[in-house]
Design a protein that fits this description.
single chain; alpha+beta; Glutamine Phosphoribosylpyrophosphate, subunit 1, domain 1; Rossmann fold; 2 domains; 6-stranded antiparallel sheet; 24 helices; globular
């Protein structure tokens, strides 16, 4: 787990000092070492910050080169099957000087070229410069656990693990992309290859890129996609017992691979289904498992220590209960800077606090991210299925009229308003945007002083998977959007700010393909139940007193904090500043609604975080 920044160009680069500055902007991603390399012709520069996890020796430092010095790599992440690949490559005649997965990745490219990514099971973003062919090859993992930003213009490609590193390049300007801002206000994040800064992009998950230094052109392609559901599962003839056996074996194998490290590894144990299953599988592989649970004094509703203690005692783990300090409003400017692009998820605060505490005890931690998307764990799956069953009795013109009236007449933040707006949704072919932050009417009011570009609704519609089954459509949509653009970004930035490597066993390639390719919808969720197959596994491996219905993600009492105190003061100071991007009256309406009991706390968080981010980086319109 590391960070890198680089440049490749059709012409010689005489300005080089920015690369070191950009690399230092990511010190938190790799405090254990750094390296910088320039090609002899001065057209390619690579810099790297190292968080040493596998092979702690200096021989595994990056940028790394092959023996012939024709290939050079910078790499962020972990290849969990690197040991198996190493054996396969050794049989083919490759020699290795280190025990690192970086060297295996480099040899894999030498053997299989751009098809090497299909051999990797892991979380990764990397760039390989092939001096012989004069091409730069970049790729990102299937789920999007590791980030990769780039800027391509006039035959020059800048790229980096974090956007802030590229801001060190003096030739790159920082202006808001208004279409991306519209997406942010609607969805809570900037999706796909888009970026909040005009001219910058993200390489999407499961995509690769090639930059030709001779022509200055790029080529981008998707190398992997979610599998179609097997016909047996579609027909409902899959054997449930066999599926349960396969799930157990796959999860156990994934956890075993992800426990491999040359530094201490822990498990974030919330006491929920996902983290408890990971703990159960880990206990089969080692008698020295470290687990950590987090308590938030004064906030009993989000305190997980009692549930986690039950699981830890059952499996005899080395368990530590950590108590988080009260969150300070001063965290927000720091997090706004760290997240590169603003993102509407106030749980970034407890995520940061948890990472900060766990890092004092270990360098690598396993978490339960991905279980909800793969196995149907969110409450909105059951609600959507209920709506699909009941909406057929209501004529579409009536539903559409109710949705229109809700958007135009009901106050923003009023309970049930979003779901009334969803009445106009076509649940047979489409999906409503569950994470709607600001609808079109509200966005127009907020942005009345700017050249507003409305594309969010059309973009969301274009990203809805083409699946007849509603649950398949919804879980795939969440996997490719909410998971990749919100949850995994939050995990990466929060943990790496503390130099902690987070791993997600549920995002193992084989588990993903099993969940979407074999598990039928009836074993994921229905109107009354969620995570059906996963909870059946808990009956096998977890204590009988385990609470299978508990659903608790990280959250903060933001509504309470906005009543008075430092958080409210910060929000008021930012949003009522004369230089605030958003319309004063529209902002005041949200604040007044919040004080009247409407749920606008996350919306206000969205506006504040954007403003703090824009100020931090001096971004203009």
């Amino acid at each position: 787990m590391c960070g890198f920044v680089g440049i490749a160009s059709i012409s010689v680069q005489t300005s080089r000092t920015w690369l070191s500055y950009g690399n230092n902007e990511m010190f938190h991603r790799g405090p254990d070492g750094q390296g910088e390399w320039w090609s002899k012709d001065g057209r390619v520069g690579l810099a790297h910050r190292r968080l040493s996890v596998i092979d702690l020796s200096d021989s595994a430092n990056q940028p790394m080169h092959n023996i012939e010095c024709t290939l050079s790599i910078v790499f962020n992440g972990e290849i969990y099957n690197f040991r198996e690949l190493r054996v396969e490559l050794e049989i083919k005649g490759y020699k290795f000087l280190t025990s690192s997965d970086t060297e295996v990745l480099l040899a894999a490219y030498c053997e299989w070229g751009k098809n090497c990514v299909s051999h990797f099971n892991g979380m990764f973003a990397f760039a390989i410069y092939d001096a012989q062919d004069q091409v730069l090859f970049l790729a990102r993992d299937r789920a999007g656990e590791k980030p990769l930003f780039y800027h391509h213009l006039n035959g020059v490609l800048h790229f980096s693990s974090e956007l802030k590193a590229l801001f060190s390049a003096p030739t790159l300007k920082k202006k808001i992309d208004l279409e991306s801002l519209d997406c942010y206000l609607a969805m809570g994040y900037v999706p796909g290859d888009r970026c909040m800064i005009k001219g910058f992009n993200k390489l999407p998950p499961a995509h690769a890129m090639q930059f030709d230094l001779k022509s200055g052109k790029t080529k981008i392609w998707r190398y992997w996609k979610l599998p179609e559901l097997h016909e047996a599962s579609v027909q409902g003839v899959e054997n449930e017992a066999d599926l349960l056996d396969e799930l157990e074996a796959l999860l156990e194998s994934s956890v075993e691979r992800q426990l491999v490290a040359d530094v201490p590894v822990g498990i974030l144990l919330s006491g929920g289904v996902d983290s408890s299953l990971i703990t159960a599988m880990a206990a089969r592989k080692s008698s020295h498992i470290q687990t950590f649970s987090i308590g938030f004094p004064g906030h009993g509703k989000i305190d997980e220590t009692g549930h986690a203690r039950l699981v830890a005692e059952h499996f005899g783990t080395q368990h530590t209960e950590l108590m988080a300090e009260p969150a300070s409003a001063s965290l927000l400017p720091m997090l706004a800077k760290q997240f590169d692009e603003p993102m509407v998820d106030s749980s970034m605060i407890p995520s940061f606090l948890v990472s900060q505490l766990v890092r004092k005890h270990c360098k690598v931690a396993l978490g339960g991210d991905g279980g909800d998307e793969l196995f149907g764990g969110y409450g909105h799956y059951s609600r959507l299925l209920w709506m699909q069953k009941r909406l057929g009795f209501i004529p579409y013109p009536l539903r559409s009229s109710i949705a229109f009236a809700a958007e135009k007449l009901l106050p923003v933040g009023m309970k049930g308003r979003n779901w009334l707006q969803f009445l106009s949704s076509d649940l047979e072919n489409n999906l409503p945007l569950i994470t709607t932050r600001f609808d079109l009417t509200t966005r127009c009011k907020l942005m009345k002083n700017h050249n507003f570009h409305n594309i969010a609704e059309a973009l969301v519609k274009s990203r809805v998977p083409s699946q007849h089954d509603l649950l398949q459509r919804s879980t795939r949509m969440d996997f490719e959007n909410y998971l990749a653009e919100d949850l995994l970004v939050k995990v990466d930035r929060s943990s790496m700010l503390n130099s902690l490597e987070m791993r997600s066993p549920f995002l193992d390639q084989h588990l993903i393909e099993f969940a979407f390719g074999k598990v039928p919808s009836k074993l994921k969720a229905n109107i009354l139940q969620k995570k059906i197959l996963l909870k059946r596994l808990t009956e096998r491996v977890l204590p009988s007193s385990f609470d299978r219905q508990r659903k608790q993600g990280f959250s903060i009492p933001l509504t309470e904090w906005l009543k008075d105190g430092k958080f409210r003061e910060l929000f008021i100071d930012v949003l009522r500043d004369s230089h605030c991007t958003f319309d004063t009256q529209a902002v005041n309406n949200l604040l007044v609604g919040q004080d009247r009991g409407y749920n606008n706390s996350e919306r206000l968080f969205a506006l504040v975080l954007f403003e703090l981010w824009r100020r931090e980086y001096g971004v203009s319109f």
